Every structure is written in structure tokens, then in C-alpha cells.
Q: What sequence folds into this?
């Protein structure tokens, strides 16, 4: 005969076991809801500025106006979600401060994205191509190119992406080598460490990275050793940067669904572990029951 | 005239957004199960990426940096521009990998590439590693510094494979190193989740804002 409350206990156990076996379609639905709702309903979360984001902001704040900043926009559609808001935030800061910058990319797709964002931001701040910014285009060659570029910019890039000779671009006049660049900002899924090897390490030029969150763990040692002066980590970095600038662009918008999804993942991990624990306990009890029955039969 | 141009641009933009939305949905359809719609767009993406890279490499790199100077050299515009023809011969040596008889010719260019690569790596490793090694010698005057040094010692002891640890305290230190490594892998995995969802959120944001025109900052 079942004891009072025993049925409830069995149901509870079954429910706990089921927690570890949630259908993946249910998880997909929950993820979509966690993303879509914050994008439709305007929600804002408090954003705290990290040391690494502050490093990028501070170095740009102190960039001299007679030198240029080099933006290595080596990212494509695959990492648009993280690198777009980062690029936009950095460009907004540079254009606001009136610091001239040149875009380049180590992959063919990168120059297009960099140009699109620069044109958008330039329109907003009334900046002009050739005077405030320019696009050096696709520069292959990785380490060899970076070393050559540091020694002689115009020797490596004779014309910009539009085919204009660099000497005819007003902002590039007097820009000869790495000593005329105040900061190299590598924006990529995994920014090239060659900038640290052959530019920061050799000439002492400031280097900052805007990386995807996935590789940020590998970048922290460079921050700690002072090789990197700042780091923007994924969307979080972009949102923090926008906070420092006092703007609300893509980073601020994307960080809300990102936080919601992270919360959901934490809840799902906890539920799955409860399910796993309940299942293990049930199996243990089953084994004990079989052993006890065996023992009784033996008597 | 200007009105008609802006109207045309708008139509092109709308068509572009629709194509991007259909591509996104086709790739997301894989979440339900693999299907021909997904396969078709996967192949379109691959073809586009390769085609774009080849075209861009020609227009941005080979033509301005190799072809034009070489032609200018042959036409007598520049004195030594014709020497660029040797770059073509050097590049073509790679293809001798496909020949059993003349395979050795490809080794010449491979040797150059490996030599240059090794030289640059050798130079780069010291420049990158030395500041990190020196920065790991921290004064033990704060909790984070002490924790940093303890972590380094524990993890290094875990990677010491030369002999078996029989001394119990060292064995424990090595075990602690393994646990600390696990924690760092957890951080890596957390960041992986962050990046993957950032990519997904960006696509959903595109579908909502630019395709369906819902919401806004």
C-alpha cells in the first residue's frame, strides 16, 4: 500500500529527471524569446566599465592630432555581431576627437565593412574622405606586410582603395612610417599578434585590440604584460565603450539580449544538473532495491 | 533624374535586404534538420566567398602590385619592372607538387617560404614572450598577485612529465594545477557561448530591424 505523499514524491522525482532531458526545440524557442523580447521591448541594463575597455578609451583620448590611427578591420560577415559595434564605437570616438585614421584589412571582405561604417559615422559628424579618414584596402602578406608597412607605408601601399596615390590624399601627406602612427587598433575575430611582434615589440607603438569574446581569454596576458594598451571584448566591450562615449548604438542594444541569453543558459545548466543528479539518485535507489530484493530471496 | 536614381538605390537596398533575410533563414533551417534549402545556400555562400576573394586578390593585389608594374616594365615606362616576370615563375613552381617527376622543383619555393616563416617566427617569439615572462615575476603584495604566482606554479607542476610525483604535497599541487586549468577552460567555454550568441543575436536583430522593420533603439 502506498504511503501518504508517496505519489507526490514519485511525481517530483520524475519531474526532476525530466529537467535533464528538455527537448532541444523547447530550448531553441526559449533562446529565440530571450533574444526577440529585449529587441522589441526597449530594456536597458546597467553597464560597468572594465579596465580593458577603459584602456582603449584612454589611449584614444591621448592620441596626438598630428599622427594618424591605423584600424586593421580584419573581420567579415561571420563576426559582424561583435566587430561591427566595436568598429563603430572606435570610429565615433576618433571622429569626435578629430583624430585622422586609415582603414586596412588583411582579408578581402574587411575593407567593405570598414568603409560602410566609416561612411555612416563620417556622415553623422561631417567628416570627409581623404581629409579625416581613408581606406588603404586589402593588404595581404601578414607578418611580412606588417614589417614592411612599419618601415615604409607608401612603399607597401602606393594607392588607396579608390586608386588615388597616397601622396595625393591630404591626411596621408607626411605619413611615412610607423612613427607617424600613434595607435594600431586590430579589430578582428582574432586580431593578429604580429602587431605585437613586429610593431609594439620593435617600435613601441601603442597597440589595442577589439576581439571576439571567444579569444579574449588568450589576449589578457598581453594586457597584463603591458603589450596591449586596451582590449574590447565582444559586444560587452562595444557596449562599455558606448557608455564611455555617452551614446546608445548597436553595442548597447545587443548587450541586452546577450545578457538575457546568458541568464537563460545559466538557468538551463542548473536545471540540467538537477536532472542529472535526480537521475543518478534514482538509478542508485534502483540498484539498492535490486540488491535488497536479491538479499531477501537469498534468505 | 536625382529622384529616379534614389528610387533605384532604394529598390536595390530592399532587394538586398530580402536576399540577406532569405539566406539567413535558409542557414537557420539547419536547426530543424539538414535540408536541400540549407545545402543550396551553403554552396552559394562558398562559391561567393571564393569568387569574391579571387576577384579582390586580382583587383587589389595582383594587378596593382604585380601586373601593372610588369607591363610598365615591358613597355619601357619603368627600367626594371619586367623583372616581376620572375615572380610568376617562382609562384608556378608550387604547381610542380602535382608532378611525380619534377616534384623537387616545388621544394625550392617551399624552402624559401619555410625559411622566411621560421626566421620571422623566431624573431617574433622572443619579442612577444619576453615581456610576458618578466611580467609574471610579480611582488607578492596583493591577493591577486599571490593568486597569479600560485596558479603559475601549480599549472607548471602539472605539466612536468619527466618523472612521477611520489612526494604527496607536490602531487597535490599538481592536482590543484589541473583544477585551475579546468577553471580556465570553463572561462574559455563561457566566452565561446558569448561569441556564438553574439553572432545569432546580430542575425535576429537584422531580421527584426531591417527585414521586418520591428522595434528600434
A:
Amino acid at each position: 500500500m502506498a504511503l501518504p505523499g508517496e505519489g507526490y514524491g514519485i511525481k517530483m522525482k520524475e519531474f526532476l529527471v525530466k529537467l535533464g532531458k528538455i527537448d532541444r526545440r523547447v530550448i531553441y524557442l526559449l533562446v529565440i524569446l530571450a533574444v526577440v523580447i529585449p529587441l522589441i521591448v526597449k530594456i536597458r541594463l546597467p553597464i560597468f566599465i572594465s579596465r580593458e575597455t577603459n584602456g582603449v578609451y584612454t589611449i584614444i583620448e591621448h592620441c596626438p592630432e598630428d599622427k594618424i590611427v591605423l584600424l586593421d578591420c580584419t573581420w567579415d560577415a561571420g563576426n559582424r555581431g561583435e566587430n561591427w559595434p566595436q568598429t563603430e564605437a572606435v570610429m565615433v570616438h576618433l571622429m569626435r576627437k578629430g583624430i585622422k585614421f586609415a582603414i586596412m584589412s588583411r582579408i578581402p571582405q574587411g575593407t567593405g565593412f570598414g568603409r560602410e561604417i566609416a561612411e555612416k559615422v563620417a556622415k553623422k559628424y561631417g567628416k570627409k574622405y581623404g581629409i579625416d579618414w581613408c581606406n588603404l584596402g586589402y593588404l595581404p602578406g601578414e607578418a611580412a606586410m606588417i614589417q614592411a608597412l612599419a618601415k615604409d607605408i607608401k612603399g607597401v601601399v602606393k594607392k588607396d582603395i579608390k586608386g588615388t596615390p597616397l601622396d595625393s590624399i591630404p591626411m596621408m601627406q607626411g605619413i611615412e612610417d610607423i612613427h607617424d602612427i600613434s595607435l594600431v587598433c586590430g579589430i578582428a575575430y582574432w586580431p593578429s599578434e604580429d602587431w605585437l611582434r613586429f610593431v609594439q615589440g620593435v617600435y613601441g607603438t601603442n597597440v589595442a585590440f577589439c576581439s571576439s569574446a571567444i579569444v579574449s581569454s588568450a589576449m589578457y596576458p598581453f594586457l597584463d604584460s603591458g603589450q596591449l594598451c586596451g582590449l574590447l571584448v565582444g559586444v560587452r566591450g562595444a557596449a562599455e565603450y558606448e557608455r564611455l562615449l555617452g551614446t546608445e548604438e548597436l553595442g548597447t542594444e545587443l548587450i541586452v539580449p546577450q545578457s538575457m541569453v546568458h541568464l537563460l543558459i545559466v538557468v538551463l545548466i542548473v536545471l540540467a544538473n538537477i536532472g542529472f543528479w535526480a537521475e543518478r539518485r534514482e538509478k542508485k535507489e534502483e540498484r539498492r532495491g535490486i540488491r535488497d530484493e536479491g538479499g531477501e530471496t537469498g534468505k | 533624374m536625382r529622384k529616379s536614381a534614389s528610387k533605384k538605390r532604394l529598390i536595390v537596398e530592399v532587394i538586398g535586404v530580402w536576399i540577406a533575410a532569405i539566406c539567413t533563414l535558409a542557414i537557420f533551417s539547419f536547426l530543424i534538420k539538414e535540408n536541400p534549402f540549407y545545402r543550396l545556400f551553403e554552396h552559394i555562400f562558398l562559391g561567393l566567398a571564393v569568387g569574391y576573394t579571387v576577384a579582390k586578390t586580382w583587383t587589389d593585389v595582383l594587378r596593382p602590385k604585380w601586373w601593372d608594374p610588369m607591363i610598365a616594365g615591358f613597355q619601357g615606362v619603368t627600367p626594371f619592372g619586367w623583372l616581376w616576370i620572375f615572380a610568376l615563375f617562382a609562384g608556378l613552381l608550387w604547381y610542380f607538387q602535382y608532378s611525380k617527376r619534377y616534384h623537387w622543383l616545388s621544394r625550392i619555393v617551399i624552402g624559401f617560404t619555410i625559411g622566411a616563416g621560421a626566421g620571422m617566427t623566431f624573431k617574433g617569439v622572443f619579442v612577444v614572450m619576453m615581456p610576458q615572462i618578466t611580467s609574471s615575476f610579480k611582488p607578492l603584495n596583493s591577493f591577486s598577485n599571490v593568486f597569479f604566482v600560485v596558479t603559475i606554479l601549480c599549472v607548471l607542476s602539472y605539466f612536468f612529465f619527466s618523472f612521477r610525483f611520489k612526494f604527496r604535497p607536490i602531487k597535490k599541487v599538481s592536482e590543484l594545477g589541473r583544477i585551475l586549468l579546468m577553471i580556465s577552460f570553463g572561462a574559455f567555454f563561457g566566452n565561446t557561448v558569448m561569441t556564438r550568441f553574439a553572432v545569432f543575436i546580430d542575425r535576429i536583430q537584422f531580421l527584426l530591424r531591417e527585414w521586418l522593420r520591428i522595434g528600434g533603439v
In short: DSSP finds six helices and no strands in chain B. Chain B has three domains: 1-77, 80-135, 142-217.
